[in-house]
Amino acid sequence: MWPLAAACWMLLLGTTCGYHKKGRTTNPEANMNISQIISYWGYPSEKYDVVTKDGYVLGIYRIPYGRECPRTAPKPVVYLQHGLVASASNWICNLPNNSLAFLLADFCYDVWMGNSRGNTWSRKHLKFSLKSQEYWAFSLDEMAKYDLPATINFILEKTGQEQLYYVGHSQGTTIAFIAFSTNPELAKRIKIFFALAPVTTVKYTQCPLKQLTALSRDVVKVLFGDKMFSPHTFFDQFIATNMCNWKIFHHICSNFIFTLSGFDPKNLNMSRLDVYLAQSHAGTSVQNMLHWAQAVNSGRFQAFDWGNPYQNMMHFHQLTPPLYNVSKMEVPTAVWSGGQDRVADLKDVENLLPKITRLIYYKLIPHYNHVDFYLGQDAPHEIYQDLIRLMEGCFQN
Fold first, then answer.
1. Which of 29, 259, 333, 366 gives the lowest tally of CB atoms within 10 Å of its CB?
2. What pLDDT, in 10s, does the model give residues 308-363?
3. How far apart are CA 207 and CA 197, in angstroms?
4. Is 122 among the catalytic positions?
């Protein structure tokens, strides 16, 4: 109950001190869905449903062209994949000159944004109810095995292209490393894999969620259930749009972000905190979080352990979950990492780099935390301009 009490005190403080209107700015995007945000900034917006082989219905979004681009000319395709408990809104929650999806559209790319199963925009199934345990019995393995192939193949079929560029952040890189190293046919459809804050092993992660690893699976399920983890709630929206749009609460609200990702206040547009927090949590499964806890405890890049040899045999045809071998991935890969990243710790990244057989680019940004890769005010300078140069060089070849 303490967060609710704190929220009430914050609201009361703002009112009694005369700050309810003074110093308060609400960005309209804080109350919009993904399509509305895209349209709000004057870009064309399209939404599609992609059905996976195991029956999940994924909502994906498209910005087919930018504001200064010819509409009918063929354009290279870029696919953006979000991180853990996040959504496609990550790529559009900054101003257009600072959001990767809008920048790519203005550079005349055909931009697509995915949503992993179980998040706010991908909560449908052909057979299972959201209230069922069966729906939520998934983790990274299924996202890599089913979500990415279904989404990428849908996009290429829709656009008539043979390949696309893949940009992933955090978990968006994790499922790509799995998919591209285990599915050679899918890997052939990727021109370049751009890995922002890449995560395979999390042996050295300093994220507070690491505390989950000290709990048994039974305790985690008692605390969080066995279905959805960290959904976007009315309370989240209330905090974002009624408090974090006041200047006096900017420090407190920004610390919610920095506690999980690493500290970098100078690189965040504080006037958009309401948008960041309103669009942040989109949810995942408890099983996915158990998979991450398993990775922290083991220090390995490995499939989900179903808890007993019989279940593992059913899923993997072996008694223990298989290890994922990044060195089998043949996709040209560019990597950016952050020196202040509490999630994708630099030690884990340094262990990953030698395993990438076709590493074409690497940049360490010393001051970057985990969310700077898509929220940082200097991201266009530090990342996006080189990312686009790499794409343009590849496209010209």
1. 366
2. 999 999 999 999 999 999 999 999 999 999 999 999 999 999 999 999 999 999 99
3. 13
4. no
